[in-house]
Structures are given as C-alpha cells and as structure tokens.
Design goal:
By secondary structure, the protein is mainly α. The protein has helices at residues 2-23, 30-37, 43-61, 70-86, 98-101, 154-172, 175-184, 187-208; strands at residues 108-109, 116-117, 120-124, 133-137, 144-149.
C-alpha cells in the first residue's frame, strides 16, 4: 500500500505544480486549482484530474481505502501530465475562478473530496403524505453531501392521530371512547382540513412560480 500511496502523492503534486506553473491555477487543493482554470483545458482532461483528485483525497482521509484500478489511475496521470507539459496555453483572458463564479454563502465543504463547492440539487417531489425532499451532491466528485425536507406532512400526522382515536374507540367502547370522541370530535376535522388547505395553497403557489 505504501508504494501506491507514494505513487498517488507524487503524481498529484506533479499535476498541481504544472497547473500552477503553466496556468497560474489558484486554490487550496487539486480540485479548486482545476476549477480556477478549467476553461483553458479540455473537458476530458478536467474529468481525469477530478478522478485523480478523488482518489488522492480518499487515500488521505478514508481508513482502509484501496485503489482497485491502478492501471486506469496511472493512465490518467500520464495523460494529464503529458497534456499539461506539452500544451501552450493562452493566458491573456483570465477565466472566472471559483471565488468569482460562486458566492461564499452558497458553498459547502465536500467531506469526500475536500473541495469548497456549490452543491447540485436533486428534488424528489412531495405530496399529501410525504414532504418534498431535496438532496445535494458535490458538483465535482458527485458524492452525496446533505439533504433538506422530507418526512411526513401535517396531513399524514393528522391521519395517524385519527387512526389512533378510531382504534381506541373500537378497543374500549366505553366511557373512555365517549370522552375521546367529545374531545376530538370537532378538532380532528380541523387537523385534516387546515393541512390540506395549506398543502393545496403551497402547491398552487409553486405552480404559478
């Protein structure tokens, strides 16, 4: 494993040095350096650098990580190093960097690759029972970062309360049942109608936007 570790570190340092020397790349790591100059280089090379950076970060931060495809890794490194070493780049027009294209308040640190990125969002539509779920992924390495929303709606929880009341009503059939019906007889419809109205209003507002 030590030989692979040295190979990964050696290649990533070489690529970072070339990015700085040939393209004046900026950033804390290989990912951010690539983002700052990716408009100068071919997209195929960008993808290879990202694969290399992902392997490097996993090797550094994940216990027990093993590089299964060393042939592909070495081929990517050779291609990237050769491309950066032999290509003449026109630096007259400076590309937009990660700092100028992304607002700091929108950026998050990806635990997988360590880059500061604006996550890309995947939405699972909600409904009466389940709330809308938003999942966010790293736009560099593609790993899941965090999620918002999801869970059951107020309407679904109200139905659960109503179901519990019905079950108690069936099981007891006595004074307890009468008290429960008296307490919740007028409240339960409100628990259902109000959430239903709020859900419809929210859905209509989203549709109009």
């Amino acid at each position: 494993m030590s030989g692979i570790y040295e190979k990964v570190i050696k290649n990533t340092k070489k690529i970072e040095s070339l990015l700085e020397e040939k393209l004046n790349a900026e950033g804390k790591g290989l990912y951010e350096k690539t983002v700052s100059i990716e408009s100068y280089i071919e997209q195929d090379i960008v993808k290879k650098i990202r694969r290399i950076a992902t392997i490097r970060n996993k090797l550094m931060h994940e216990d027990g990580f093993e590089l299964n495809d060393t042939v592909l890794f070495e081929a990517d490194c050779r291609d990237v190093i050769y491309y950066l070493s032999t290509t003449e780049f026109n630096l007259e027009t400076k590309p937009k960097t990660a700092e100028t294209t992304h607002q700091p308040r929108d950026r998050r640190v990806c635990k997988s690759c360590g880059a500061h990125v604006i996550p890309k969002m995947s939405i699972r539509k909600g409904g009466l029972i389940v709330k809308q779920l938003r999942k966010f992924y790293c736009n560099l390495c593609g790993e899941f970062m965090y999620s918002t929303g999801g869970g059951h709606t107020i309407f679904a929880k109200s139905l659960l309360v109503l179901l519990i009341i019905v079950i108690i009503d069936v099981l007891t059939g006595n004074a307890v049942s009468a008290v429960i019906r008296f307490i919740f007889g007028s409240v339960v419809p409100i628990f259902i109608l109000i959430p239903l109205g709020l859900w419809y209003w929210g859905r209509k507002k989203t549709t109009n936007e």
